[in-house]
């Protein structure tokens, strides 16, 4: 099977192909599991694009994102029907054709046996030059074309394939996150936050108001690659808060 | 208050600004309500971009999308803190500055009274030349700058503001949707679907496999602006299905 090397990547993007999402027929549900997985790996997810199942549009989006990001994940459009055009679009974006891969043809023959049709074989399409990346516990290999990782759209299968991402991709360093919850509103917090942001340039500080929650009004988050930096930024906020705050930290 | 005209728009895009979504701190939840609202209005949502809270990135995304779409919705980044940069980014994208609008200043003074700070006033920032669009039942006006509708990121407020979208935007024609559920898999369906797709070019046909559902394996959807076209495409599939299918239609 595959001898794919573990890769260090820093900045990731996601393309969700899904006319059904844009038309409100199904709710998007793959972004969050991918974002959690990448965060745990220390890889920064920096964009997600949700676009229709249109081969030319998808290819243009891939071409644009592989210029700017280290890895681009695709979700959706890898079944056998007319609206499944992801493999061809990935091939187009790389200026190659897509062909049925012998290894996938063998797998399809094993699964479907005498029921195998031309439609089934479409599921074996792979852009010329792509790698098949495998794990012992997952039957179906994942197609990786350069920076582009092709993942399924069906949420249960998408989550299953995240173990392949976890096995073969790493960020340059892990991301540390802390948070403080307060009953103060964002406008009260702003002058304190501005000082913390100014004094801790290596820490990314976020502020998220919560409505209709009796336990807090604003969550302040601190993310960085160095634990000490992150702890110092959190401490810098805490020492500026009035008595009785924060409600809690995590 | 506002005398904003009802607008007919065809193609929409959405920009979700949310480092917190990309970092897996919160789950995205505004796309689906907007997609449902637009679908009911006959407006076609054709792209959603989820990008970080970065003023230059947001401005570049706006500039790119207003070239290609009739209306661009923004969600998020309109609070008072350092990571709330949407209003300034919208102004940048249009080559204007953002200033505190007198009408919003008055509202903020009424709400916060002697507690009003410079941070609160940031929530009154509006790009020069923007419209304030109101409904009698919603206190806070919605800022609309040309094609760009600026909506909040907090899900409860975002949903509330969709009534403003419903009041002032219309699609050129309503979208009719039907669906059939079958126990056939996509590969079995593909030859039948290819004929239906070929014979009904004005109807958009989608095919969505469902795993781990005992009641069906594939949902086939038919969308179009003409009821008769959509019904004919559905009928064309149904008459090609074997006995016992479909499991149900809707």
Structure write-up:
- The structure is a homodimer of 250-residue chains.
- Chain A has helices at 19-22, 31-41, 55-68, 86-93, 102-112, 118-122, 155-168, 186-199, 227-238; strands spanning 7-8, 11-17, 44-51, 71-75, 98-100, 125-127, 131-135, 138-145, 148-151, 169-170, 176-182, 204-209, 218-224, 248-249.
- Chain A is elongated and about 75 Å long.
- Chain A is of the alpha/beta class and 250 residues long.
- The first copy, chain A, contains nine helices and 14 strands.
- In chain A, 37% of the residues lie in helices and 28% in strands.
- In chain A, the strands form four sheets. Chain A has a six-stranded mixed sheet, sandwiched between helices.
- At the A-B interface, helix 1, helix 2, strand 3, helix 6 and helix 8 of A face helix 1, helix 2, strand 3, helix 6 and helix 8 of B.
Number of strands of chain A: 14
Shape of chain A: elongated
Q: Percent helix among the residues of chain A?
A: 25-40%
Oligomer state of the chains in this structure: homodimer
Strand content of chain A: 25-35%
Q: Poorly predicted ranges of chain A (pLDDT <50, ≥5 residues)? A: none
The number of distinct helices of chain A, counting runs of at least 4 residues, comes to 9
> Major sheet of chain A: order of its strands?
3-2-4-9-8-7
Biggest sheet overview of chain A: 6 strands, mixed
What distance lies between the first and last C-alpha atoms of chain A, to the nearest angstrom?
Answer: 42 Å
The most extensive contact between chains is:
A-B, 62 and 63 residues
Mean pLDDT of chain A: 94
